[in-house]
Every structure is written in structure tokens, then in C-alpha cells.
Amino acid sequence: MTESSDVTAFDAKAFVQRLPGRPGVYRMLGTDGQILYVGKARSLKARVGSYFHAGNVSPKVQAMVSQIAGIEVTLTDSETEALLLEYNLIKEHKPRFNVILRDDKSFPYIHVTTEARFPRLNFYRGTRNLPGRYFGPYPSAGAVRESLQQLQKLFKLRNCEDTFFENRSRPCLQYQIERCSAPCVGFITEEEYRRDVDSAVKVLSGRSEEVNAELARQMDAASEALQFERAARVRDQLASLKQIQSQQSVTAASKRDADVVALATESGDHCIALMFVRGGRNLGSTQFFPRAPLGDDGEIMSAFLMQYYFTREAPREILLSTPIVDREALESALSDRAGRGLGARWLTLTQTNAVQALRMRALDRAGIESHLEALRQDLQMPEAPQRIECFDISHTRGEGTVASCVVFGPEGPVKSDYRRFNISGVEPGDDYGAMRQALTRRYTRIKAAEIPMPDVLLIDGGKGQLAQAVEVLRTLTLSGLAVVAVAKGADRKPGQERLFIPGREGPLILPPDSPSLHLIQRIRDEAHRFAITGHRKRRARRHNESALEAIPGLGPARRRELLKQFGGLQGILRAGVDDLVQVRGIGRPLAQLIYEHLHPGA
User: Do residues 36 and 97 touch, judged by C-beta distance below 8 A?
Assistant: First the structure.
């Protein structure tokens, strides 16, 4: 049943008197008929009446009440039904005074194709409707890939696609670097492979101690049978597993599955930190920053739980830092148990994450705004810039040239607008031609209004690169933006940068402690990082998917040893010279050469 007030002549007192004391949902309407706020109630009469009570002096509530021109209510059979209806209405209308979860995150899982003859472990994101078992969720793709790498190193399980697996006639590189047991060519029996899969599943389920006991038993059996090489392999496998267990920063005494939710509020901003615990293992955490102009902490927490879990599978326990008034209704709606006996250690960690993330976000935002104002003054602009683009070029001796474009705004990096340009048709090593091509491709789209025009265009380089930028903008008849070339100083050290600006006689040299110079350095360094990353990827693809093959003096045997030691190219990229010299066959001169080749310009 739905009841509505007369919007043209709203009498709050009379309307509340007509309301029943039953569960339902109410919708506050503005003068234009737009929904201002949606709420649920165990008793509509009591809840709606509280907004107009003389003792309710909350400024936020009064701000909303002053705009109410009408109220609509819908009766429900239970508070749980009201909760579900409230969720659907908030999702559809997104009222301005409701708590709105702005992040729409999709979390990744590890998927084990247990139904296959030789199951594979793989990264998975999306609806979990494929056969097999899923483990997670993990807070990031990096956390999943790190776990997959550890499991493949321990149990040598395949990660290749079925089409690739079914058409192999010889082992691939994963076998050579001891990351796969090569079931595709029969180097391991189905029974032995299935035993390794079961061990991996136990580790993912938090049952590592069972695997420890089984490996210890296998090691003793191999020793008694005088199979010393096998005993040594199992010993190393057991040591690796124990090392992984020791690296787990938070480990629960029990094997619980739980989500830990903590809320922090400061200066009107809110952060919710969510930590995932599966099988007693902390898989990591993530943060949300909901819009909540009206709600108190309990309402914000309740709204988060409703909006987050109604589209996701909830674990058996949800541990909360903030009490909620509609706990029973949420329990019923989720068909699960709410958190009891809160794990103080988990909650303290998650609460700290929420407070820290909130403070860092506020400080970063305030810092960027002051830096943008300083940049406005130094560049003599009428207003502080709201959008800055920066371009950089990366190549190795003219090969695999890539241009990067990064974008910054008042909130910091706008990574969704980052772009890379694979440069072709220019002479190798022609940085001017590469810059001209990248700018032309980017600003042709800006001229067509496909991309917003920046207020400031930064170019990594000197007068030559600046001339290319000015010429491209002149050709495209684009104006109204400040163009600055950022050249390194004589010693190429931060703080010595010279800024070249069209129409200015000499370079602008800002003091080393200048806020605007710090902002320019940060954006320039981000463009450099983004260009280098793209260049490495392009170069690796050109060299048979291995950037190692182009390094003089690094033959197949040493490449295999490097990949085996560090688990892949990404591990090698993270290694320093001192790490590289620990690899058999790699001396310090070769280690230095490898590092310089993989980190050009470092």
C-alpha cells in the first residue's frame, strides 16, 4: 500500500498523525517532485515523526526538512521487506541526502578448474558461474597474481589456456623455469598432479598445516627409500610453504571466513575500510569513500552493508566497528550471521586503515589545491589550473619508441585519462618527431571535442620539444592553454629544472622548495614512469616476450636461471644489482648491465 501527502499544501503534523505504526519505506520529496531522501522504518509513524520533532536540532536534518514539500510512504509486511525496497529505491534514484556508495568495485578471485582432468589455477573477475572452485575475494589484481605465483612455484600447476594446453608437443618455458610440471606432455601422472592440486586448494582454504604434515611424511618416506633427490625436492617445497606462511602479516587462530568493516569520519568526510579474511588468512583490504551528507555513523555503516552485500555473496561473518540499529533486518536479508565476538586485532587494523586512508586523502587533496594555486601565480594564469597534461618520450637507442600522456586534476592523477602512443614512421631516436606525432594525435581529438582541453600542457624536454608543441597547437589553431617545457638542470638533479615558456626570453627557474615546482616534478616523473612502463612492454613483445634477450652476454642458460630465481620478468625488474649478483653465473659487471638495460635513464 502506498500513501502520498499533498505536495502543494504539506502539513507535516497532520500527515504524521495519519501514518500507521507499521514497517515501511518513506520518500521525502522536494518542490520539484525530486526525491530528497529514502528511508526505512520499523514504525513509519515514529520514524517520520522524528524528523519534525522540536528536539531534532541537527543542522543537516533541518537543512533537508526545510526543503520537504511532500512525503510518500509504502507499507511493507516486515522490516526486512522495507530494507530491500529501500535498497532498490536508493539504487534507482540516488537521492541527494542518502548515503551513496560511489565505488563500484569488482574484486578478483583465484579460480581452480577442478572439473578438468588436469586443473589449472587462473585469475578470474566477474560472475562466478563457471564450474570449479573460487577463492577470494582479493583486494587487487596484484594480490591474486602474487598468490598464483607462489602456488605455481610450490606445486607447479599449469596456468595456460585449455587450447594451448591441448596442442603442446613439448614443454613450454614455464616447465623450464620450474613453474609447471608439464602435464601437457605426460611428465607427471594424473594422480600425482591431482595430489598437487588438492594441496594447493588446502593452502587456499587456510589448511596449510595439513599440507605441511603431508609433505613432511613424503620427505621421510623418500629418505627411507633412499630417494634422496626426491626427499631434497620435497624438503625445499616444505621450506617454501613455511616461508609463505611466515609472510602472512595477520593470521587468525581459527579458520574463520569473515569480512571486517571499519568506519572513520573526520571533518564531514567518511572512509569505510574493508578487510577480507578467508580461512583465517588476511587477503588484504580496500577502502570506500561514500557520499553521506545526512547520516550518522550507524546509518552510514548500515547503508554500506546494504549497498555492498546485496550485489555480492557475504561471508559467514561480518565484523563491524560501528553498531547498527537494523541488524536483525540485515541478517534476515542477507540470510547470514552478523559479526559476534569481534576480533579486536582485525578490527584495530582495519579501523587504522580507514583513518589513515581518510587522512591521507584529505592531506593529498589540500596539498594539490595549494600547489595548483602556486602554479597559477608562477605562470601568471587568471585561475588555478584544473586539468594538466604532461608528455614524455621513452626508447632504447631509438627502438620501441613510446610517448606517454598523463593527466592531473584537483584530486591528483586522473588515471582513466592516461594514454600511451606507439610511435612509428619517424627516424629512430628522433625525439622531436616522436613528440610532434604524439601531440598531433592527442590534440586532434581535443580539437574535435572528444577530450577536454587542459589548462596547462607540460613537455618533458627543452626548447626543441617546446617548439614542437607550439607548432602543433598553431597548426591545429588551438589556444588558451599554458605550454611549459621542463628541462633538467646541469647536474640533472631535482630542484635544478629550467622551465621554458613561449614568449619568455630566458627560462623560468623556480626555487627548489617551490610548491609549484614540486607539483611539476611529480607530474613529470609520473609521465616518465608511464612512458618507461609502456616502452618496456613494447620492447618485450618485440623480443619474443622477453626483454632479456636483447642484453649482450646473457645467454639462454643465464636467462633461465634468472627467470627461475625471480619467478618471471616482473621479479627481475624489481631486483637490484645486489640481488642479481646472487644468481649463479651472474657477476657484478653483467648484473650492472642487466639493471641498466631494464631501467634506462635510472
Answer: yes
| Pairing verdict, β 412-413 and 317-320 | unpaired
pLDDT digits (tens, 9 = 90+) for 256-270: 788 899 998 887 788
Collapsing DSSP to helix, strand or coil, 298 comes out as helix
Closest C-alpha to 416, from 405, 430, 427, 428: 405
Cα 246 from Cα 248, distance rounded (Å):
5
Q: For residue 498, report the phi and psi dihedrals to the nearest 5 degrees.
A: -115, 130
pLDDT in the model for residue 303: 84
Cell of 503: 614568449
As a whole number of angstroms, the distance between CA 210 and CA 330 comes to 36
Min mean pLDDT across 10-19, 220-229, 585-594 is at 220-229
Query: Is 423 strand, coil or helix?
Result: coil
User: Which residue shows C-alpha cell 617551490?
Assistant: 514
Please give the backbone phi and psi of residue 321, each rounded to the nearest 5 degrees, phi first. -85, -15
Is the CB of residue 24 less than 8 Å from the CB of residue 74? Answer: yes
CB environment 97-135: b (16+ within 10 A), e (fewer): bbbbbeeeeebbbbbbbeeeebbbbbebeeeeeeebbeb
**Number of residues in the chain:** 602
Structure confidence by residue, pLDDT tens digits, 542-581 = 553 456 877 888 888 888 888 878 777 777 888 888 889 9
H helices of 310-416, where? 327-334, 344-379
Report d(CA 53, CA 56) in Å as an integer.
Answer: 6
- Which of residues 499 and 225 earns the better pLDDT score? 499
- pLDDT one-digit tens code per residue, 132-165: 999 888 877 877 887 888 788 888 888 888 888 8
CA dist 237 and 436 (Å) reads 54
Show the beta-strand stretches assigned E in 68-220: 70-75, 109-112, 121-124, 133-135
Residue 461 and residue 467: Cα distance in Å, rounded? 10
When computed from its CA atoms, the radius of gyration of the chain, rounded to whole angstroms, is 30
Cell of 484: 611549459
Q: What is the pLDDT of residue 337?
A: 39
- Asked whether the whole model's pTM tops 0.85, one would answer no
Based on DSSP, count helices (H) and strands (E) in the chain, helices before strands. 20, 18
d(CA 46, CA 172): 70
Bigger pLDDT: 304 vs 337: 304
- Between strands 456-460 and 281-288, the pairing is unpaired
Distances (CA, A) of 395 to 71, 430, 432, 434, 487: 64, 10, 13, 10, 18
* Dihedral sign computed on CA atoms, order 178, 181, 185, 186: positive
CA 523 to each of CA 62, 367, 392, 456: distance values in angstroms, whole numbers, following the listed order: 43, 14, 10, 12
Question: Which residue type occupies 327?
Answer: R
Residues whose CB is less than 8 angstroms from the CB of residue 576 and which lie 6 or more positions away in sequence, other chains included:
595
C-alpha cell at 332: 534476515
Q: Give me the mean pLDDT over the 180-184 stretch.
A: 91
How far CA 41 is from CA of 38, 172, 246, 315, in Å, comes to 10, 62, 48, 26
Q: Which of 7, 13, 17, 104 is CA-nearest to residue 54?
A: 13
Q: Show the CA angle centred on residue 268, arms to residues 267 and 274, nearest 5°.
A: 100
CB 113 within 8 A of CB 158: no
